[in-house]
Write a structure and sequence with these properties.
The protein has 146 residues and is mainly α. The chain has one domain (29-134): Orthogonal Bundle (Cytochrome Bc1 Complex, Chain D, domain 2). The chain has 7 helices and no strands. It has helices at residues 3-20, 29-36, 47-54, 65-69, 89-101, 108-117, 122-134. It is elongated, with a radius of gyration of 20 Å. Residues 45-136 form the Cytochrome c domain. Pfam families: Cytochrom_C (PF00034). Residues 1-19 form the signal peptide. This is C-type cytochrome.
Amino acid sequence: MTKTSMTLLAIACALALSACGSEAPAEGEHAAEAHSSSSAGIPAGNIDAGKALASKKGAASGQACVDCHGADGNNPIDATYPKLGGQYADYIEHSLMAYRSGDRGGSTTTDLMASQAKELTDQQIADLAAYYGSVTGQLRDLHNAE
């Protein structure tokens, strides 16, 4: 293949790939998606209910989500704890369901999360995920990368 043919092929591939992309979601659209749909197969979440639940102490540990992850999910008390604010709601749903089912565990931290998640209903998981997905977070993706 000649150099010109290779160049034309590369340009054609680049154009084809750029046509497959989509625009970045508008500000706040990420939160709306988290609120209205779930790939985990659980009900739609309620942001206000999730915010209230994040401050409610769990019976298993006597702790609330905010006790370890911070008031908005962005200030964990330990650097090894994840920031939840701005995280994708589906990710939070799947994680909490894995903790609840026992598919995640085996360390002090994950066992604490498992004990907390075992108390949660599907609706409560959806509500927490909707809330943390709606919070402006410090997590970043490539939608607005320069």
